[in-house]
Every structure is written in C-alpha cells, then in structure tokens.
Amino acid sequence: MKVLLKIVASIGSIISISFGIWHFFVPAMWDWYSYIDKTATELIIAVRAINIFFSLSLVLLGIANLFAVFKTPRERFSLVVLLSVSVILWATRFVLQIIYPQGSQNPVLQYCMLLIFLLVSACFIISLSLVLFRK
C-alpha cells in the first residue's frame, strides 16, 4: 500500500509540477496579451501576476506533495492536508472543464485537458483515500 501511495501521488505531483512549469509559458504561446487593450497596463500586470502566482503555486504544491509522501517517518496530518488541497484543486479544475470547457476550438485539446484533469484528480483522490483508510 505504501508503494501504491508513492506511485499515484508521484504521478499526480509530477503532472502538477509539469503543468505549473508549462503554464509559465502559456501567455506567450497563446498570445494572451493581444486580447487586452495595450493601454490597459494595470490589467496586463494583473494577468501576468495571477499567472505567475498560479504557476508557482502548482509547482510548489507538487513538490510539497512529493516531500510529504517520501518523508520518513511520514507525518499523517501534513500529508492529509496537502493531499486534500490537491484533491480540491484538481477536482475543481475537472468540474470547470466540464462546465466551462477550455480548448473548445479544438475538440482533441478540450478532451485531452479533461482527461488529464480527471487523471490528476483520481491520483490525488486515491492517494488521500490510502492515507485516510489505511490500517
């Protein structure tokens, strides 16, 4: 059971970290700022700050999850808190992708995102369940 916890938590954490790193580059890749009036400098700064904060949060949360899972001895309370936050974060993102899908201009992208969000949510739900219900 400890091995399964490490595997599924690592998968979710590595995807979270990767998604966070990738998201640092999303504004340039998708030319976000071309949709904003160039005179709205405060809005551009705000969008940039939110994206950096979001991206960094995903990276740091993924790293924290890995530390908590691989730490010995494991601190159950800290692990439950971190995994719960990850479950809430990714389950919310999965639900939002169903209600307000992103990438809808390309169905392959839209459904790949949905699948990835479901996979990460499932990894953290399984991890949290293993911690909460282990004997």
Structure explained in plain terms:
The protein is an all-alpha fold. It has helices at residues 2-29, 41-70, 76-99, 107-133. α1 runs antiparallel to α2, α1 runs antiparallel to α4 (107-133) and α2 crosses α3. The longest helix is centred in the middle third of the chain and has 30 residues, at 41-70. It is elongated. 19% of the residues are buried.
Secondary-structure blueprint of this entry?
Blueprint: H1 2-29, H2 41-70, H3 76-99, H4 107-133
- Please give the radius of gyration in angstroms: 17 Å
What is the N-to-C order of secondary-structure elements (H for helix, E for strand)?
HHHH
**What is the average of the pLDDT values?**
96
Cα shape: elongated
What does the main sheet amount to? none
N-end to C-end Cα span? 10 Å
Strand % is under 5%
Helix/strand class: mainly alpha
Are there runs of 5+ residues with pLDDT below 50, and where?
A: none
> How many DSSP helices?
4
Number of strands: 0
Q: How helix-rich are the residues, as a percent range?
A: over 70%
